[in-house]
């Protein structure tokens, strides 16, 4: 089951026109249990405030890894793959669903891939139990025109079991067709992944930047202007 969201953008004072790289959003809670609250929720709300239109959130309740999201001009298809990555139900070993009862559990090492059939400009997700084996999470974004961009997720290394984080990015300049997850140095680490949000360029708000407020003229300036106008009128009458 998918939950679709319609959002009105509130840009939190950020001018994206000044950036030529993804703007990232991050929040972490090291002791949430199965509670989704605190900094990850705040980070998610900030991320969502930069999207508009009927974008989609995938909660994996349907049990599949071939996904469809609504875009601004048509559907966005996404396919998850990698090792023993699959759908899990319930809570266990520190990993849990952040909505509903199901989530994606990565294979050993935590590396997996998401390929899109339409270019995207926004991407966000909840993840659980990252870093308890001493690993750091990174994302490699494949640019639509070729090349890659690497993003580091600043998760706590050697965190306790059951940690929760939100990570997302928006980009008003470049678009992407593939995202790979790298859990460095890998090993036996496994983590949970849920509530994936995807948006295309038409769903990302471009902020024109803060506009200056009109500055009122001091009363003394207004009086001076009135006096000069009167003086000019008197000279015209005298000349006549």
Task: Give a short overview.
This protein has helices at residues 39-48, 219-239; strands at residues 2-7, 23-29, 53-58, 66-70, 75-81, 86-89, 102-105, 112-120, 122-128, 136-143, 148-153, 164-170, 176-184, 192-199. By secondary structure, it is mainly beta. Strands 1, 2, 3, 6, 7, 9, 12 and 14 form an 8-stranded antiparallel sheet that branches.
Key phrases:
240 residues, mainly beta, Jelly Rolls, eight-stranded antiparallel sheet, six-stranded antiparallel sheet, 2 helices, 14 strands, globular
Describe the structure.
13% of the residues lie in helices and 39% in strands. By secondary structure, it is mainly beta. It has a single domain (2-239), classed as Jelly Rolls. The strands form two sheets. Strands 1, 2, 3, 6, 7, 9, 12 and 14 form an eight-stranded antiparallel β-sheet that branches. A hairpin with a 4-residue loop joins strand 4 and strand 5. The radius of gyration is 25 Å and the shape is globular.
Q: Could you give the topology of this structure?
A:
Blueprint (H helix, E strand, L loop, with lengths): L1 E6 L15 E7 L9 H10 L4 E6 L7 E5 L4 E7 L4 E4 L12 E4 L6 E9 L1 E7 L7 E8 L4 E6 L10 E7 L5 E9 L7 E8 L19 H21 L1
Antiparallel strand pairs: 1-3, 2-12, 3-14, 4-5, 5-8, 6-7, 7-14, 8-13, 9-12, 9-14, 10-11, 10-13
